TrEMBL record:
Belongs to the eukaryotic PMM family. Its main location: cytoplasm. The keyword Isomerase applies. This is Phosphomannomutase. One of its GO terms (cellular component) is cytosol. It comes from Drosophila ananassae (Fruit fly). The gene is Dana\GF24687. Involved in the synthesis of the GDP-mannose and dolichol-phosphate-mannose required for a number of critical mannosyl transfer reactions. Mg(2+) 2 binds at residue 230. InterPro entries: HAD-like_sf (IPR036412), HAD-SF_hydro_IIB (IPR006379), HAD_sf (IPR023214), PMM (IPR005002), PMM_cap (IPR043169). Its cofactor is Mg(2+). Pfam families: PMM (PF03332).
Length: 254
């Protein structure tokens, strides 16, 4: 069936945020926002599924108005579920793993980072969220310039990839998955708690003829990989909001 002929309640468009609706850790542009809300929203049900928490989504997408603009918001890979501005469900990593395992993991990460030599380090190396932990070797309290510097350093030296490999060995007995997203950090969560978790909520409550997903980190190990390749979705690989706009214009015949 041609996507452009589907009714709004028959098609769901799901979007990553970083590198898809915005440039990495930047805010959405007025031009893209106007295109998205005036042309795309009337044609399809829309949702965002990101690795970050809701507050970071607010920062990048111009505040709490997204609660009214999006039909679905899935922060933290969909471990928090929001429909039409109201939270309708939440999963919790503490209850799933238990305090003893969590402390073992956190202690190991802090020891590991204390011995890791990097050009610079700042603060907040582990960020705790409902459905995951976010590990940042440089520390999340870095400037935009420092963020870009680490991203280039990591591309060359594979800091995050090597750390994940070491964590997989150390915690082979624990139900954990590791996923690189964004420029400076990686997410840690139980198996199956990747972005496909959002699809569980959708399948249980709604019937769409097509579900499309747009994301940039679609390679293996990236935090869009699983949902991009899931048989329930039609995946679209993008690198910038311009790519997203071009593909939307094409598939919806805007």
């Amino acid at each position: 069936m041609a996507t452009a002929t589907l009714k709004r309640d028959e098609i769901l468009l799901l979007f990553d945020v970083d590198g898809t609706l915005t440039m990495p850790r930047s805010t959405v542009t007025p031009q893209f926002e106007d295109f998205f809300y005036s042309k795309v929203k009337p044609r399809a049900t829309i949702g965002i599924v990101g690795g970050s928490d809701l507050e970071k989504m607010f920062e990048q997408l111009n505040g709490q108005k997204i609660l009214n603009e999006f039909d679905f918001i899935f922060p933290e890979n969909g471990l928090v579920q929001i429909e039409k501005g109201k939270e309708v469900g939440k999963q919790n990593i503490i209850a799933h793993l238990g305090e003893k395992t969590l402390q073992r993991f956190i202690n190991f990460v802090l020891r590991y980072l204390s011995e890791l030599e990097l050009p610079i380090k700042r603060g907040t190396f582990i960020e705790f969220r409902n459905g995951m932990m976010n590990v940042c070797p440089i520390g999340r309290q870095c400037s935009r310039e420092e963020r870009n510097m680490f991203a280039a350093y990591d591309t060359e030296h594979k800091v995050r990839e090597k750390m994940i490999a070491d964590l997989k060995k150390e915690f082979a007995d624990v139900d954990l998955t590791y996923s690189i997203g964004g420029q400076i950090s990686f997410d840690v969560f139980p198996h199956g708690w990747d972005k496909t978790y959002s699809l569980r909520h959708i399948e249980a409550n709604f019937k769409f003829k097509e579900i499309h997903f747009f994301g940039d980190k679609t390679e293996k190990g990236g935090n869009d990989h699983e949902i991009y390749n899931d048989p329930r979705t039609i995946g679209h690989k993008v690198n910038t909001p311009d790519d997203t706009q071009r593909i939307l214009t094409d598939i919806l015949k805007l």
